[in-house]
Specification:
Order of helices and strands: EHEHEEHHEHEHHEEHHHH
Radius of gyration: 20 Å
Shape: globular
Number of domains: 2
Distance between the termini: 25 Å
Strand order of the largest sheet: 3-2-5-6
Number of strands: 8
Oligomer: single chain
Strand content: 5-15%
């Protein structure tokens, strides 16, 4: 079934004429799949869920709102533009925190819901769950779990620190795959971080800023402490689980895509974790 494509004016009219509609807009398909499952098992309320790509927004509107392009920015614009017809906040716009909570206050708007952690995938970042996937489902041969898990967390923190440093410097990087810079050393995940940062900056035609971003990334990494779900990119989390299973001689069939679908299957087991978004 082909999804509708709406302009902001069409959506404004839609909610003016039908103020009881309780639509939810999310950034992407994975978010939609997770929340659809959460609503089915954790709420008596029925809501239609749409991804950001059903909304058409002109480039000029991004400029008018002083926002870069992207699905999150699109939903923030939508929230702002529909504020008058969404006074009761029947319509919701679910957006990822990403690095935003480290760089300033999160915007408040009618129906605007920020994820509790960095993004939807990160809700699953718990040591017990990682252990179940890596050791039980994945059959990986991890001999020292404490050492492995510490390196697992540290790797994700370093990757997130680079993104935070780049955003803070208003630098739009073209991130390269980090898996090629990973290895296993003494039973732990090892990331050749300096080379990864350098290659990412060179790939982004920002080689002249390598020293600046490298220093900033190290500083940000030193600030991150406590709950890793607040300094982790969810997609990196899923990729690193799949990589770890493979490199620690576990099941070869558990790709990051398969693990992503497993996360959706697990929503009914603990739907309460998504209560703030329902």
């Amino acid at each position: 079934m082909e999804m509708p494509r709406w302009t902001i004016d069409e959506l404004r009219t839609r909610y003016e004429l039908e103020p009881t509609l309780t639509d939810v807009f999310v950034e992407g398909q994975f978010d939609k799949d997770i929340l659809a499952c959460a609503y089915e098992h954790g709420s008596t309320e029925k809501r239609a869920i749409y991804t950001a790509d059903v909304v058409q927004i002109d480039k000029k509107l991004f400029e008018d709102h002083k926002l870069t392009s992207g699905n999150k920015q699109k939903l923030i614009i939508l929230c702002r533009e529909l504020s008058q017809v969404n006074q009761r906040e029947n319509v919701r716009f679910v957006v990822d925190r990403d690095v935003d909570h480290w760089l300033g206050e999160l915007e408040v708007g009618n129906g605007l819901l920020w994820t509790e952690f960095c993004d939807i995938e990160t809700y699953f970042f718990e040591e017990v769950f990682v252990g179940e996937l890596v050791n039980n489902a994945g059959k990986a041969k991890v001999k020292n779990w404490e050492r492995f898990y510490a390196s697992f967390r540290s790797t994700l923190k370093m990757l997130f620190a680079l993104r935070t440093a780049a955003r803070n410097a208003k630098l739009d990087l073209d991130y390269i795959d980090f898996e090629r810079y990973l290895s296993v050393k003494d039973g732990a995940v090892a990331l050749d971080y300096k080379t990864y940062v350098q290659r990412t900056l060179i790939n982004s035609k920002a080689a002249d800023r390598i020293d600046e971003i490298w220093k900033s990334a190290l500083e940000w990494g030193g600030k991150f402490d406590g709950d890793p779900r607040l300094f982790c990119r969810g997609h990196d989390f899923v990729i690193l689980i799949a990589w770890s299973i493979l490199k620690f001689k576990g099941a070869r069939s558990l790709s990051d895509e398969v693990i992503g679908r497993i996360l959706i299957l697990l929503v009914p087991r603990d739907v309460s974790r998504f209560a703030s978004l329902l």
